[in-house]
Design goal:
This protein is mostly helical and 116 residues long. The protein is built from 4 helices and no strands. It is flat, with a radius of gyration of 25 Å. This is NADH-ubiquinone oxidoreductase chain 3.
Length: 116
Amino acid sequence: MNLVTTIICITSALSLALALVSFWLPAVRPDHEKLSPYECGFDPMGSARLPFSLRFFLVAILFLLFDLEIALLLPLPWGDQLPTPLLTFAWASIVLALLTLGLAYEWAQGGLEWAE
């Protein structure tokens, strides 16, 4: 057996064992006290389930998108050491152009405006 086959067998056996153990363990049923919000031992002042603005969600999604873009473009300076650096820079330019078009579209639609 080679190393890859051994690792696949071990991980499959471990996954199966953990799945079977989860059926034998009792289900955890939290009571009312565990589900109530905790504020330093005092009764809560207000509801912990306040409505959430979708603007925060949109900003978070846009942040993740552009954070991923930067993570993909960070190794770009080492792209000139590849056999075809022009192809690497062309693909990076295409990715940058698509993300810039997406940003321009969001801006034009008013998705980045905080107050209406």
